[in-house]
């Protein structure tokens, strides 16, 4: 019988056998998969797991600090690296979505490798690969492989010449969550929506700047907090805000404004391959719209995306 407790016992034993007294390096993203994988590896080998968490400048508001704090509470040996300036510098003047993805993927690998080189004798690379990732990378003709370069931390293994440690390779997402709960990982991390590797960079249409990131972080924070407060967060598969490259006229007091528009996105889905727009209550949308327009200077209009996938995608880029 598969139970999370049995899985943990067996996996920790296997990891001990595989790794012995050697060292593992691993990139953590704040997501469920990498966190659960790292916690299992840590249980097996303790501080010989070296976790790296990179602030790429396109995380959510306060995410870097909060996630690092959680990792420390979990006892993980983790190093946070603030690489924001590097990412902003290279993203400048690059409005194309695929170019943005490639820049972020490349810089991430550079930062990670630089850290790996500071450590000696690292034999293993830990990864939070789950079963659907394995399937997806096998079916090269799958939609995500042909339409977008979904990199996550893909590309790392080939460049690092290390042996892989992938304790979640045969699990589905719901099983990963069960294991995570059994390991005592806080609920707010376990039930998180998926968040793309290129982060807010693909939710800012066109060129990414530090100023636009700051605007979008505020709007996104209001939206996500409201979803949680209204018990709607768990009813949707994924939600986020998109900053449109459009300014329009508004009014504040007796002055005209000319500011950005954000789109709210929320979808229901089973696996992200197809998705339906979530029928969030009008009252809820009204509250979020007011809160964003009243509190985020630079945004004067909020719209709700009512497109399904296909033909639209979940992200706008
Ligand atoms: P789309 O927009 O293709 O998104 O309907 C499907 C799922 O994939 C996520 N996504 C990405 N994840 N790197 C990632 O790690 C990417 O470049 C990327 N693009 C989309 C998206 O958030 C959704 O969950």
TrEMBL record:
GMPS ATP-PPase domain ranges (all copies): 2-192
Keyword Metal-binding among UniProt keywords: no
Pathway listed: Purine metabolism; GMP biosynthesis; GMP from XMP (L-Gln route): step 1/1
The entry's keywords: ATP-binding, Glutamine amidotransferase, GMP biosynthesis, Ligase, Nucleotide-binding, Purine biosynthesis
Binding site for ATP: 29-35
Annotated signal peptide: none
One GO CC term on file: cytosol
Any one GO MF annotation of this record: ATP binding
Enzyme Commission code(s) on record: 6.3.5.2
Catalysed reactions, as listed in the record: XMP + L-glutamine + ATP + H2O = GMP + L-glutamate + AMP + diphosphate + 2 H(+)
Cited function: Catalyzes the synthesis of GMP from XMP.
Quaternary structure and interacting proteins, as annotated: Homodimer.
Protein name: GMP synthase [glutamine-hydrolyzing]
Source organism per UniProt: Niabella soli DSM 19437
């Amino acid at each position: 019988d598969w139970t999370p407790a049995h899985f943990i016992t067996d996996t920790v034993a296997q990891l001990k056998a595989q790794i012995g007294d050697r060292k593992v390096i691993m990139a953590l993203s704040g997501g469920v998969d990498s966190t659960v994988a790292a916690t299992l590896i840590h249980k097996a080998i303790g501080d010989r797991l070296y976790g790296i968490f990179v602030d790429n400048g396109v995380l959510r508001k306060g995410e870097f600090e909060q996630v690092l704090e959680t990792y420390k509470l979990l006892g993980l040996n983790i190093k946070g690296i603030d690489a924001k300036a590097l990412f902003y510098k290279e993203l400048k003047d690059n409005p194309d979505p695929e170019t943005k993805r490639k820049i972020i993927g490349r810089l991430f690998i550079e930062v990670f490798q630089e850290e790996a080189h500071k450590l000696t004798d690292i034999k293993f690379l830990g990864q939070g690969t789950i079963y659907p990732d394995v399937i997806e990378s096998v079916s090269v003709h799958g939609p995500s492989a042909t339409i977008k370069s979904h990199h996550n931390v893909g590309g790392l293994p080939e460049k690092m010449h290390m042996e892989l440690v992938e304790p979640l390779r045969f699990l589905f997402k719901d099983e990963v969550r069960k294991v995570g709960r059994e390991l005592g990982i806080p609920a707010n991390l376990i039930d998180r929506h998926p968040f793309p590797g290129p982060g807010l960079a693909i939710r800012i249409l066109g060129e990414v700047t530090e100023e636009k990131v700051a605007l979008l972080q505020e709007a996104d924070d209001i939206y996500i907090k409201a979803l949680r407060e209204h018990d709607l967060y768990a009813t949707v598969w994924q939600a986020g805000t998109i900053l449109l490259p459009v300014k329009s006229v508004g009014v504040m007091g007796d002055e005209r404004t000319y500011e950005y528009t954000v789109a709210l996105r929320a979808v229901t889905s089973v696996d992200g391959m197809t998705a339906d727009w979530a029928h969030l209550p009008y009252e809820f949308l009204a509250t979020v719209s007011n809160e964003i327009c009243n509190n985020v200077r630079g945004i004067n209009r909020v719209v709700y995306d009512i497109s399904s996938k296909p033909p639209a995608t979940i992200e706008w880029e």
